[in-house]
Amino acid sequence: MDPEFVLDPATLDLHASDELLRRAGSLVPVLVEGVRAWAATSHSTLEAVLSHPAMTRDIRYWDAEARAAAPQGTSLMRLVTDASMLNADGEEHRRLRGPLVKLFSARQVQRMEPWITSIVGDLLEELAALPPDEPIDLRAEYAYPLPLRVIVEMLGIPDSHREPLRALTDQVVQLAQSPPDSSEGRRALFEMVGEIIELRRATPGEDLTSELIALHGQGQLDDAELRDTVQVLLIAGHVTTINLIAHAVRALLGRPAQLELLLSGAVPWSAAVEEALRWESPNAYFPMRYAMEDLEIEGVRLRAGEAVLACFSAAGRDPERYGDNAADFDVTRPSVPHLAFGHGPHFCLGAPLARLQAEVALPALFAAFPELRAAGPADDLPRLTSLLDNGIRGLPVLLGPPASR
């Protein structure tokens, strides 16, 4: 497998790269952070990879020589070596994911709506205190703090640890103009998650961390699984939702006719959320699936042990799935399922929670600030330097006066 494309986060033009990848084929050899892999570029191919019974997230099936040759310390390797449910399959996956399924079910999440609405109200009050005619970063002031507050409270993270934990997460996941992902940052985050676990062990409460500690005490999770599960819930529990809300606001600020359809009630806000997820998948590329045996997908032969990179952003704008206007944001688009939250056994556990937060946050924002407008071209904003997270670094806006009460 000779790579045709090098995916480098430092130079990545995401959607231009995605278009080139789709034109090259449904499964394309790439080099990503020093690792040779196949890139699943089309919707149908990605769906097949995510659901194929002979494709697995279990790193033990990755070709031993390829794994040994992979550069260590990269964001890709950090993810594929995680000991949480992220990289388990079969019985192991069910064991690790099972205790969390009920907690993140659509019914359970819907009960959180009043609480989430209250947090949104607090954030809007804070925005209303800012100068209405001076640019502010809506990503930093609204899209970011909402999902972060939700997940840290769900995990029972003490107030004393929230700000340093946020800074470390930003560094490791590259959410801001911070130092790049480094072994020092990951080590510090690892240690802080360990501190939080010990604090919750000493003073358990009604939170996710305490429930996971109880499972650890019953022998259902080992030390690494406990730590990595808390860390995955923390990071995945807010990063994708930040991207979702920021991209949705960005799209609507640049398309007043689309916004008016939502404000008038002609189109439900849920349609805007689903279209934002399709149009700008919160995850760009995500590692890895491994072929457990020789197999064929979309006419391409994969050998046992070969790795496949999931190209969610490419699949979301696949013209074969969404038509010639797949690159356009259109809240009236006929409802066609997308893959932004994955597919199959690893479908995103937090999908109902992310959707709910966006469906509460978006209408509340535009109702609170009816003159909200972009402070510059909304469709030309600097993106995160990341292969994994499809996000923007900032969203400068002018709030205008808050709605009269």
Features:
globular, Cytochrome P450, oxidoreductase, alpha+beta, 50% helix, 10% strand, six-stranded mixed sheet, Cytochrome p450, Cyt_P450, three-stranded antiparallel sheet, 405 residues
Question: What is the secondary structure topology, with strand pairs?
Answer:
Elements: E1 5-7, H1 14-24, E2 27-32, E3 35-40, H2 43-51, E4 55-56, H3 64-69, H4 75-80, H5 90-101, H6 106-110, H7 113-128, E5 136-137, H8 138-143, H9 145-155, H10 159-173, H11 183-202, H12 208-217, H13 223-236, H14 239-253, H15 256-263, H16 269-279, E6 285-291, E7 295-297, E8 300-302, E9 307-311, H17 312-316, H18 319-322, H19 351-368, E10 373-374, E11 396-398
Parallel strand pairs: 1-2, 3-9
Antiparallel strand pairs: 2-3, 4-6, 5-11, 6-9, 7-8, 10-11
Pfam families: p450
Protein name: Cytochrome P450
Family: Belongs to the cytochrome P450 family.
Explain what you see.
With 405 residues, the protein is of the alpha+beta class. It has one domain (5-144, 238-398): Orthogonal Bundle (Cytochrome p450), CATH 1.10.630. Helices cover 50% and strands 10% of the residues. The protein has a 6-stranded mixed sheet. Strands 5-11-10 form a 3-stranded antiparallel sheet. Strand 2 and strand 3 (35-40) form a beta hairpin. Helix 7 packs across helix 9, helix 7 runs parallel beside helix 19 and helix 16 crosses helix 19. It is globular, with a radius of gyration of 21 Å. The termini are far apart. The model is unreliable at 175-181 (pLDDT under 50). InterPro entries: Cyt_P450, Cyt_P450_B, Cyt_P450_CS, Cyt_P450_sf.
